[in-house]
Amino acid sequence: MKTKRKEIAWLACEVKTPPFSENARKEAGELLGLLQEGVAVSMPRARPMPSIGRRCLELRVRDETLNWRILCRVDDDAVVVAGVFPKKTERTPRREIETCKRRLAMWDSE
């Protein structure tokens, strides 16, 4: 039985060229597409982000000169993208985590 493809809900962020290279933008689209189809994406392409919430992931996209992160949550009916940013350190910045938690809380309350 074929499952319905989930929608993508963008919360105040986007993936476009520039600043993403064309290859990085395509890779991001492929990862999001897998999540839309219900495929479980894991390391090294994604890691769980329980510090943000249940079902939250940090998608890892390598670009020519830096690494991008897409913070999202996989709901039953949608992939909710709560943050997109270039990652410059090993740790996810606390500011990004708090911003994503706030955006997801607003999404859930609507």
Overview of this structure, please?
With 110 residues, the chain is an alpha+beta fold. The chain has a single domain, classed as YaeB-like fold. It is built from two helices and five strands, in the order βαββββα. Strand 2 and strand 3 form a beta hairpin. The longest helix is centred in the last third of the chain and has 16 residues, at 94-109. It is globular and about 35 Å long. 27% of the residues are buried. The mean pLDDT is 90.
Key terms:
alpha+beta, 29% strand, 110 residues, 5 strands
In brief, what are we looking at here?
The chain has helices at residues 22-36, 94-109; strands at 7-10, 46-48, 56-62, 67-74, 78-87. The protein is an alpha+beta fold.
Largest sheet: 5 strands, mixed
Average pLDDT level: 90
Beta strand %: 25-35%
> Which term fits the overall shape?
globular
Strand order of the largest sheet: 1-5-4-3-2
User: Distance between termini?
Assistant: 31 Å
Give the second-level CATH assignment, the architecture. Answer: 2-Layer Sandwich
| Number of E strands | 5
What proportion of the residues is helical, as a percent range?
25-40%
Structural class: alpha+beta
Poorly predicted regions: none
CATH topology: YaeB-like fold
Oligomer: single chain
| Order of secondary-structure elements | EHEEEEH
The structural domain count equals 1
Number of helices: 2
Rg over alpha carbons: 13 Å
